[in-house]
Amino acid sequence: MSKQIDAYEIYKYLREKGLSDFHAIGVLANIQGESSLIPTAINKTSGAIGFFQFLGSRKQPFLDYMEKHGGLTNDNWKKQIDYLLDVEDVRDSRIDHYLEQDFPSSTDAVVWFGRQVERHGIKGENQKRATYAVENYSNFGNQWDTDNPKKQQAVEFNPDGTGYDEATAEE
Q1: Dist. CA 24–CA 30, nearest whole Å
Q2: What tens digit of pLDDT does each residue of 61-70 get?
């Protein structure tokens, strides 16, 4: 049976892996957008699978990795994050480049991740994920960087109300 993983547990794990506050929230908000925090999620239309909804040439290597590490289950959700961040054959320059960015907010981080790593291409999705990022930051962000806190920026919208999908985020 599929179940949602608690957002704070995912956030904590990403921070334990060394991601900054904004980077962790950026990845988390994309997990929310891709799979609703359900590690066993399968898109019935495309067949995309897991937290990050791997598809095409990315899907089989992910499934092979998960099979070697206990399968695609609710209990080993951390392995999906390990796969994205740690497995050299998978981790590509886009992940490295994401981690090198000094984002001014979690909303910038989530949009960059969505455009450059996930490449979801769904109209309105960046705005939805930016909203997740603001909510996550409000709920538990900046708890780890107490000696050097950054102020969270609000979701920025264009005058025509299109939000981040047509806005320019640092790329």
Answers
A1: 10
A2: 999 999 999 9
> Rounded CA gap, 136 and 73, in Å?
24
What is the enclosing helix (H) or strand (E) of 84?
A: helix 78-86
3-state secondary structure of 105: coil
Residue, of 150 and 95, whose pLDDT is higher: 95
| Partners of 49 in the β-ladder | 42, 54
Of 85, 83, 86, the C-alpha closest to 39 is 83
Structure tokens at 38: 């359900």
Residue 159 confidence (pLDDT): 43
DSSP string, 12-38: HHHHHTT--HHHHHHHHHHHHHHHTT-
- Cβ-Cβ contacts under 8 Å for 41 (sequence gap 6 or more): 2, 34, 35, 49, 50, 51, 53
The answer to whether the CB of 164 falls within 8 A of the CB of 107 is yes
pLDDT in tens, 90-138: 666 788 889 999 998 888 999 899 888 887 767 777 788 888 888 888 8
